[in-house]
Design a protein that fits this description.
about 70 residues, mainly alpha, 2 helices, about 0% strand
């Protein structure tokens, strides 16, 4: 390893805006199972699938239809 490195010609990370933030969220077990099964079919991690679904909802301004029993 070098003692010093020259970063004067470096560029900013273009993906820095897409860095994910870790949160805690409570989900029903059947909801988690649904996304895990779907993720297995698609061959991607279930947390990534949930993120893609939520991102799609946010980008399309999808409104939630709530019906209370």
């Amino acid at each position: 390893m070098r003692d010093n490195y020259d970063f004067s010609k470096s560029i900013k990370n273009p993906y820095a805006k897409r860095i994910k933030k870790q949160i805690t969220i409570r989900l029903d077990e059947d909801t988690i199972d649904y996304f895990k099964n779907l993720a297995e079919e698609k061959g991607i991690p279930y947390q990534s699938l949930i993120n893609l679904y939520l991102r799609d909802c946010a980008e399309t301004h999808k409104k939630l239809k709530v019906k209370w029993a």
